[in-house]
Amino acid sequence: MSSEFLPSINIERAEYELHQNSDDDLGYLKFLDRARLPLLNNIESPANGLDFGSGPNPVLARRLAQDGFDMQVYDPLFAPNPPQKPKNGFDFIVSTEAIEHFHQPDVEWQQWLDLLSPNGLLVIMTKRWLSVEKFANWHYKNDQTHVSFFNLATFEYLAKRDGFLLETPGADVVLMRRLCAV
C-alpha cells in the first residue's frame, strides 16, 4: 500500500484495542491453535520462541509457555522493547494475524531472518489472497489496518530465495523451516 494511505499509529492502536482476546475465550484459543498445533508438531521443548506482533494481550505466548517453551513477546505498540536474541537465535518465531499490518514487510522479514536460528521455524498466520478477481470482493482487505497482503506464491518465493522449506498446514498458516546456516 502506498505510504499516503497507511493508517496512523493512533488508528492502529484504536483498532487493536477493540479486540477482546482472552485466555478464557475458547473460540479464540481454537483460532490460535491453527498456528499453535502445527508448531507443536514441529518443535520440541525446551526451545525458545518469539511471539512477534503479540498485540495487547499475548495469549499465544502464554499458551506456548504453558507448553514448555521459553517465550518472549514483541509488538511495536504494546510490547515495544526489542527482543533479546538468544545466543544461537530463536528456535521459532510465531506471528499470528500480524504480517498484514506491517507497513514495511521487507523490514520485519529481515528482522525475522536476523533473529531466527539456523534450522529455526517461522509460523505465520494470515489470510492469503487467492486471485486478482477475488481480491476486489475480499473482506480481509477492508480492514484499514490491513495494508500488506500475501498469497501462496509470495511465501514460495521467500522460501526459495531465503533457504526455507515451506509447508502449508492450513488455508491461513504457513510453516517455514530454515535450511541454511546463518
Automatic annotation (TrEMBL):
<dbReference type="InterPro" id="IPR029063">
    <property type="entry name" value="SAM-dependent_MTases_sf"/>
</dbReference>
<protein>
    <submittedName>
        <fullName>Class I SAM-dependent methyltransferase</fullName>
        <ecNumber>2.1.1.-</ecNumber>
    </submittedName>
</protein>
<dbReference type="GO" id="GO:0008168">
    <property type="term" value="F:methyltransferase activity"/>
</dbReference>
<dbReference type="Pfam" id="PF13489">
    <property type="entry name" value="Methyltransf_23"/>
</dbReference>
<keyword id="KW-0808">Transferase</keyword>
<keyword id="KW-0489">Methyltransferase</keyword>
<dbReference type="GO" id="GO:0032259">
    <property type="term" value="P:methylation"/>
</dbReference>
